[in-house]
Amino acid sequence: MGSLSQAVLQGLKQRLSGLKILVCGDVILDRYFFGKVERISPEAPVPVFEIEKITHSLGGAGNVAANLACLGCQVELLGVVGDDEKGKTFVELAKSLGIGTSGIIPDPQRPTTIKTRIIAQAQQLLRIDREERKPLAPETKAKLQKIYQNLLETSDGVIISDYAKGMFLSEGFTAWLIGEARVKGKPVFVDPKSENWKKYESATTITPNLKEFRAVAKFEGLNPDDLEGASRELVKRFNLEFLVVTLGKDGIFLYQPDKGTQRFPARAREVYDVSGAGDTAIASLCAFLLSGLSLDQAVELANICAGIVVGKLGTQPVYFHELENYFKEGGEHG
Fold it and tell me: Which domain holds residue 195?
């Protein structure tokens, strides 16, 4: 486990509670229909799903914010919902977790992005999406910019959570967000969806998963299978401090210009559902790094958090006490 121990966690909890992180991104309402399937329909060869309960959780940038809140940080969330019932549900859920919602703007021009998952016997049968991927209206963008500038003053860092749902499609908007933060000396962590990383230039770090990493390497004319070589080049081209690639069941890959590469093997004990693991990784990495841990320690702990979250069904955050339990149980030897 290297330099990590329960002692590190003790001081950490207190430092996390003093952090304020600004999350800016595509917010999604995740809805789950839980039920059972016991017969096939007489009308067509399809299963009959008997619904038993419906739950909602924060998805997209909302899940990043939820992870930060559950680790004990103060969080402000900036994003756009529809002027509809689902938008209100999203805001209520965020408030119930203690997430600041002054930056969530209702836009009558678009619906709240919602992903509905149909789950029977712990298996996902179907996902139904309702979304409109179009750039922000100029007046919505102007409102967000004003709120962002105000919130930035008191924030310790920024996470940009790009889910390609329209928040970052406006020309120059992402570069403006990063530029404003960097001028004020605030680190910026980016979870990318686009293979065109030009808009993320000069962020502190970008945290693609392996598929996204390979897509951008290809887009940039690099060898997508050469993790180290392509990382070195991407860090240089986009003026990053370091690069983190989440490798799913293979853990996390870290590249730093002065130290080269490090691999952190996966810490998952059981894998039920990988949805949201990237959100957990970027939220915890940002929180741990800003709380004063070294980059190696922060990545190692973020890796453990991602390992905990894939053991849960559905989009769920990791709580600080789960991290404490992980160490109490002797980490991966538990």
Answer: 6-27+60-113+133-333
Q: Would residue 235 count as lying in a domain?
A: yes
Provide the pLDDT for residue 204: 98
In a domain, 42, yes or no: no
Predicted confidence (pLDDT) at residue 56 exceeds the cutoff of 80: yes
- What average pLDDT does this structure show over 225-241? 97
Q: Is the pLDDT of residue 4 over 60?
A: yes
126 within domain boundaries: no
Residue 206 lies in a domain: yes
**3-state per-residue secondary structure call for the chain:** CCCCCHHHHHHHHHHHHCCEEEEEECEEEEEEEEEEEEEECCCCCCEEEEEEEEEEEEEEHHHHHHHHHHCCCEEEEEEEEECCHHHHHHHHHHHHCCCEEEEEEEECCCCCCEEEEEEECCEEEEEEEECCCCCCCHHHHHHHHHHHHHHHHCCCEEEEECCCCCCCCCCCHHHHHHHHHHHCCCCEEEECCCCCHHHHCCCCEECCEHHHHHHHHHHCCCCCCCHHHHHHHHHHHCCCCEEEEECHHHCEEEEECCCEEEEECCCCCCCCCCCCHHHHHHHHHHHHHHCCCCHHHHHHHHHHHHHHHCCCCCCCCCCHHHHHHHHHCCHHHC
Q: Please, what is the average pLDDT of the chain?
A: 93
Q: What is the pLDDT of residue 283?
A: 97
The number of folded domains in the chain is 1
What pLDDT, in 10s, does the model give residues 69-94? Answer: 999 999 999 999 999 999 999 999 99
Q: How confident is the model at residue 9 (pLDDT cuts 50, 70, 90)?
A: confident
Structure confidence by residue, pLDDT tens digits, 42-53: 999 999 999 999
Of 123 and 217, the structure prediction assigns the larger pLDDT to: 217
Catalytic residue positions? Answer: 279
Q: What is the CATH number of the domain that holds 162?
A: 3.40.1190.20
